[in-house]
TrEMBL record:
Name the record gives this protein: Pyridoxal phosphate homeostasis protein
N6-(pyridoxal phosphate)lysine modified-residue sites: 36
Location of the Alanine racemase N-terminal domain: 30-233
Pfam families in UniProt: Ala_racemase_N (PF01168)
Gene3D superfamilies found in the cross-reference section: Alanine racemase (3.20.20.10)
Keywords: Pyridoxal phosphate
HAMAP family according to UniProt: PLP_homeostasis (MF_02087)
Function: Pyridoxal 5'-phosphate (PLP)-binding protein, which is involved in PLP homeostasis.
Length: 238
């Protein structure tokens, strides 16, 4: 039987191995534990094993869990709190809850959403750290800004007072072929380069999940978003 602490250890070892293989500094690859569909108890188990950043896809599930985890951790000697990242599709009527409860958002793909998040970010919370989600594989069903519209969106976001543009995120079309996986991640890395050439400061590539983490690290990922390899198989449709 594998447990969350053991799984975390295995994932950290896999990150270190991939980093060594592709000549990357492992300290530049952050692990985001994607806890969607899992409960506050599992988050706290990961927390107690040293995990600090958690990702959620659904607003209501996420904010309920954040409150519950906070309750469970209250009274522990460690006053530090988890850092919550929102990584799911964003409807405009949910932006306030996201702006008020999360530290990071990875899935901005249009100006209207960015503007609302900035307007609704409580000033006491500091800047919301954001990534722009790019539809790298061009799938009609996937969210994400089209690569041709990325520069305009990035420029818009850099003008917003309460958002800090950190980088790009993608969820490529699933493939078991590592060469295909790398090609998609390479495109995202190239788009980040293009933004930098335009004078836009970005330091983050949010890419790589349980099934394609190594390919993402090979192509320069700085945040891998890992769910099932840490928490196990998800048990309801997502
Ligand atoms: C669910 C999800 C993940 C984690 O996927 P796993 O395959 O469980 O590692 C990462 N990123 C996004 C956007 C997700 O929705």
């Amino acid at each position: 039987m594998s447990s969350i602490p053991q799984n975390l250890q295995v994932v950290h070892e896999a990150i270190a191995l991939s980093a060594a293989r592709y000549d990357r500094n492992p300290t530049e690859i952050a692990l985001l534990a994607v806890s969607k569909t899992f409960g506050a108890e599992q988050v706290v188990q990961a927390w107690q094993a040293g995990q600090r950043a958690f990702g959620e896809n659904y607003v209501q599930e996420g904010i309920d869990k954040i409150a519950e985890v906070q309750r469970m951790l209250t009274g522990q000697l460690n006053v530090e709190q988890p850092v919550w990242h929102f990584i799911g599709p964003i409807q405009s009527n949910k932006t306030r809850a996201i702006a008020e409860n999360f530290s990071w958002v990875h899935s901005i793909d249009r100006e209207k959403i960015a503007t609302r998040l900035s307007e609704q970010r409580p000033t006491t919370a500091g800047e919301l750290q954001v990534c722009l989600q790019v539809n790298i594989s061009g799938e009609a069903s996937k969210s994400g800004v089209h690569p041709d519209e990325l520069l305009a969106l990035a420029k818009h976001v850099t003008q917003l007072p309460n958002l800090r543009l950190r980088g790009l995120m993608c969820v490529p079309e699933a493939s078991e072929d590592e060469a295909v996986q790398r090609q998609a991640f390479h495109q995202l890395a190239q788009l980040k380069q293009d933004l930098q050439t335009q004078g836009i400061v970005v330091d983050t590539l949010s890419m790589g999940m349980s099934a394609d983490m190594q390919a993402a690290i090979a192509e320069g990922s700085t945040i891998v978003r890992i769910g099932s390899a840490i928490f196990g198989k998800r048990h309801y449709a997502v």
